[in-house]
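User: My collaborator sent over this chain with a note saying "see what the structure looks like." That's all I know about it. Can you take a look?
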Amino acid sequence: MSLIGDILRSYRAPRAVMRKHLARGRREDRALVWLLSACLLIFVAQWPRLARQAHLDDEIPFAGMMAGALFGWLFLAPLIFYALAGLVHLGRRMAGQRAGDGYAARLVIFWSLLAVTPLWMLHGLLTGVLGPGVVTMVAGLGVLAVFVAFVATGLREAVLEPPAASA
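Assistant: Without extra context I'll predict from the sequence alone. Here is the result:
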């Protein structure tokens, strides 16, 4: 199935999608592409908010805001998500779960981030149109809740899934 099909299917059957991805074998390149794709899409989702900010406050030009968001989402965020995956892997090992070598934690977190990018896009649009407020805060919390639910579901599936052979 296509990537977009898998993202849409993740909202109906997240365990089945994660089971399929785990069964495909160890592919670090695929996980990295998912992470970078998610970060790029989230960067694009920031554009309406940045345009609104630049229009309302001309202290920092739009190009400067875009450069900061680009640096944050395409250079810093991947490092942060790699660190988060390492902490999740370490936590799983400390909890006594079969944790392997950390690939499953990276795969689950990176896929979950990619799967919630449509919600990030919606949140970015809401923030650009409505500005900061209760609606955008609730939408942001919703994005976070779906991300956490995908990660929790994926990690549960990773514990149940036997380790896949290297591809």
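A starting point for your reply to your collaborator: The chain has one domain: 3-160.
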